[in-house]
């Protein structure tokens, strides 16, 4: 049976702390889909919280697609296809896991599906201010790569990809990029630390966008997102 710990005093609301602990057990696989979670009495005792706080936490998790409560049945974990993986708070909890690699591998697959098209759209639609901002960010990336400054690289690499989504002039791409901001940071940390910076691949994307060459930008993005560049080529085995 999954073990929970007493909720500590912190700036976070009690019900959010409880929800985070339960979510971690679900996301890590310690609690399985269709499995019933412990009773209210057991959970209140484990967390040291009131029933009101516990019920608020289960409401929060239900809203994210993780739990389902039924009268006389109890609360069970919903199948993974119901989980709201693009929920910002859920993404934050995923980052808290000891092993985030399976999620990051799947996230890379999502990036491969949409980011090359975002780069192509940015090449056609970025306005002058966005191109100027992209230039500044790319120059910072160049300096970071030359000086092996991982912190500077992470910050500017994140901004680089966010700017691309914002430059598409497609209102569906813009919020998508914003929603993924948290996991972009986690992904970049995982991919960059101890590895190379892929500055030439980023340079090709940058030059293509600045030249207004959508097809070249699309191909350059696909090249950047190759498994070998992201240091995740062996992760498919982790989710097989």
TrEMBL record:
<dbReference type="InterPro" id="IPR036388">
    <property type="entry name" value="WH-like_DNA-bd_sf"/>
</dbReference>
<dbReference type="InterPro" id="IPR008920">
    <property type="entry name" value="TF_FadR/GntR_C"/>
</dbReference>
<dbReference type="Pfam" id="PF07729">
    <property type="entry name" value="FCD"/>
</dbReference>
<feature type="domain" description="HTH gntR-type">
    <location>
        <begin position="12"/>
        <end position="80"/>
    </location>
</feature>
<dbReference type="Pfam" id="PF00392">
    <property type="entry name" value="GntR"/>
</dbReference>
<dbReference type="InterPro" id="IPR000524">
    <property type="entry name" value="Tscrpt_reg_HTH_GntR"/>
</dbReference>
<keyword id="KW-0238">DNA-binding</keyword>
<dbReference type="InterPro" id="IPR011711">
    <property type="entry name" value="GntR_C"/>
</dbReference>
<dbReference type="InterPro" id="IPR036390">
    <property type="entry name" value="WH_DNA-bd_sf"/>
</dbReference>
<keyword id="KW-0805">Transcription regulation</keyword>
<keyword id="KW-0804">Transcription</keyword>
<protein>
    <submittedName>
        <fullName>FadR family transcriptional regulator</fullName>
    </submittedName>
</protein>
